[in-house]
């Protein structure tokens, strides 16, 4: 079956190392975050010279380019390769949560280990078997099967009295703050959960929410990692 996105745009699978760079850049671009070498070094836990070598190779292979602001961008070829990697990861996450019953924190960690060992054939069969899901357990769309929701807003942008439904958790939070994922799970801040903003403290930079029957206080920074859609 065709996904509509080529896994091997130039007929060659990216190495596991390059795949990690492609995946990280994809996630940052999806969140509207500028991608710079120092940020990639922090994300991947490697030195800046190591990042420089990898980026030079990716530029040579036509995967990335620098824009006018000296920020890293995926080319069309790089975007296709990154989307294929992310799609595989998110399908693996769905299998690990929906079939094996792992929680979404463990599933994300395990999917990162497994995604490089799964073929396109197995990926496609898993997707069919799982009922053709359109998002990962954290609500992020599976490339090729769903697009971002244009009505989404960051929870941090809501005002007192506004209601919303959690749509997804930032992929940046998934990768950089697994403890945050656990925290959100324990407080029922998961996709499809309804919430209401009770209070916004501009000085302390916190939001007080009603989630189900609980009151939860989040920092502005944490709330910015949660995407919501307006409640009907």
Helix and strand topology:
Layout: H1 16-30, H2 37-44, H3 48-60, E1 64-66, E2 72-74, H4 76-98, H5 104-114, H6 120-129, E3 153-154, E4 163-169, H7 171-176, H8 178-186, E5 194-201, E6 206-211, E7 214-219, H9 220-223, E8 226-230
Antiparallel strand pairs: 1-2, 3-8, 4-5, 4-8, 5-6, 6-7
Helix pairs in contact: 1-4, 2-3, 4-5, 4-6
Q: Number of helix segments?
A: 9
User: Major β-sheet, in short?
Assistant: 6 strands, antiparallel
User: How many distinct beta strands?
Assistant: 8
The arrangement of helices and strands along the chain is HHHEEHHHEEHHEEEHE
Residue windows where pLDDT falls under 50 for at least 5 positions: 1-11
Given the helix and strand composition, which structural class is it? Answer: alpha+beta
Q: How are strands sequenced across the largest beta sheet?
A: 3-8-4-5-6-7
| N/C terminus separation | 37 Å
Explain what the structure shows:
43% of the residues lie in helices and 17% in strands. Helix 2 packs across helix 3 and helix 4 packs across helix 6. It has helices spanning 16-30, 37-44, 48-60, 76-98, 104-114, 120-129, 171-176, 178-186, 220-223; strands spanning 64-66, 72-74, 153-154, 163-169, 194-201, 206-211, 214-219, 226-230. It is globular and about 50 Å long. The chain has 232 residues and is α+β, with helices and mostly antiparallel strands. It starts with 15 loop residues before the first helix and ends with a strand. The model is unreliable at 1-11 (pLDDT under 50). It is built from nine helices and eight strands. The strands form two sheets. Strands 3-8-4-5-6-7 form a six-stranded antiparallel β-sheet. Strands 1-2 form a two-stranded antiparallel sheet.
């Amino acid at each position: 079956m065709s996904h509509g996105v080529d896994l091997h745009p130039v007929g060659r699978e990216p190495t596991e190392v390059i795949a990690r760079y492609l995946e990280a850049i994809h996630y940052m671009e999806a969140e509207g975050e500028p991608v710079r070498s120092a940020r990639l070094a922090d994300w991947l836990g490697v030195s800046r010279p190591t990042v420089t070598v990898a980026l030079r190779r990716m530029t040579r292979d036509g995967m990335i380019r620098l824009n006018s602001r000296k920020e890293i961008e995926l080319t069309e070829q790089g975007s296709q390769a990154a989307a294929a990697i992310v799609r595989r990861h998110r399908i693996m996450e769905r299998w690990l949560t929906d079939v094996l019953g792992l929680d979404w924190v463990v599933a994300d960690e395990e999917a990162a280990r497994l995604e490089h060992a799964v073929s396109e054939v197995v990926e496609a069969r898993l997707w069919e078997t799982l009922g053709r899901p359109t998002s990962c357990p954290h609500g992020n769309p599976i490339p090729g099967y769903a697009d971002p929701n244009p009505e989404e807003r960051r929870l941090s942008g809501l005002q007192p009295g506004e209601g919303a439904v959690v749509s997804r958790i930032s992929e940046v939070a998934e990768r950089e703050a697994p403890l945050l994922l656990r925290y959100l799970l324990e407080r029922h801040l998961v996709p499809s959960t309804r919430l209401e903003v009770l209070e916004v403290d501009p000085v302390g930079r916190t939001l007080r929410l009603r989630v189900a029957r609980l009151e939860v206080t989040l920092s502005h920074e944490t709330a910015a990692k949660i995407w919501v859609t307006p409640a009907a």
